[in-house]
Amino acid sequence: MRIDVVTGFPGILEGPLDESIIRQARMKNLVEIVLHDLRNYTHDRHRTIDDEPYGGGAGMVLKPEPFFECFDELSADRSYNEVIYLSPDGELFTQKLANDLSLKNSLMILCGHYKGVDERIREKLVTREISIGEYVLSGGEIPALVVIDAIVRLIPGVLHDAESALEDSFQSEDPDHPHYTHPPEYRGMRVPEVLLSGNHEVIAQWRHEEASKRAALKRK
Ligand code: SAM
């Protein structure tokens, strides 16, 4: 899979994309993630990517030209399954949507900032608008990281144990079950005996029951 991210602030993404599971996925060539700095698609001395809104009002708006020029350059090399704009008023990001997107070959992600982007970008370039939740962040960079992380861990071969992602919350109807690791006792708290039993059938049953209990608690 290839993911192209178009942003005025690539530095926000660089560190997180170079750590942990995403880093390993990139090193194994399971995903190629390329950041594109909007300022490289400007033509003035100050490399301006934003401007005042027509009609007045507070806040700056990201200009159309850098997005369109970057889009044209990227689209000349490949076609994209989706061109995603992160927006608080978009479709809510869910595990199901992450599953769907993880099956695509190539995604372009556009990050807004300040008041957002010139509407013509949304009208002409964007095929899907995604919100990571009902709150407003300063820019689309952190939402882009959320979406990328959720997608990349679902790509076959990224997690060592393929079943791991399938057992996560939201993949099935129930939430995930509790997890324990060494030591068997810590500050007086013991790992449930059943997990030390070595009996996989009983363990599976216990995990199922615990996940159901959590689901029931959530429904209250
Ligand atoms: N004026 C916009 C509004 O009220 O919908 C908010 C703009 S926000 C300050 C700047 C940018 O951050 C947006 O263009 C979007 O790309 C991103 N953003 C902020 N909150 C987001 C969220 N919950 N989900 C996805 N993207 C978000």
Overall body shape: elongated
According to CATH, the homologous superfamily of the largest domain is SPOUT methyltransferase, trefoil knot domain
Q: Compute the gyration radius: what is it?
A: 22 Å
Mean residue pLDDT: 96
The helix-strand sequence is: EHHEEEHEHEHEHHEEHH
Q: Supply the CATH architecture of the largest domain.
A: 3-Layer(aba) Sandwich
List all distinct small molecules, including ions and cofactors, that are bound in this structure. S-adenosylmethionine
Count of β-strands = 9
Distance between the termini: 40 Å
Write out key terms for the chains shown.
single chain, 220 residues, alpha/beta, Alpha/beta knot, Trp Operon Repressor, Chain A, 2 domains, five-stranded parallel β-sheet, elongated, binds S-adenosylmethionine
Explain what the structure shows.
By secondary structure, the chain is of the alpha/beta class. It folds into two domains: 2-162, Alpha/beta knot (3-Layer(aba) Sandwich); 172-219, Orthogonal Bundle (Trp Operon Repressor, Chain A). The protein is built from nine helices and nine strands. It has helices spanning 10-17, 20-27, 64-77, 95-102, 119-124, 141-152, 162-167, 193-196, 200-219; strands at residues 2-7, 32-37, 50-51, 61-62, 82-92, 106-110, 128-131, 185-186, 189-190. The strands form three sheets. Strands 2-1-6-5-7 form a five-stranded parallel beta sheet, with helices on both faces. The longest helix is centred in the C-terminal third of the chain and has 20 residues, at 200-219. The model has no long low-confidence stretch (mean pLDDT 96). Bound molecules: S-adenosylmethionine. S-adenosylmethionine (SAM) is lined by residues 86-89, 111-113, 115-117, 131-133, 135-140, 143.
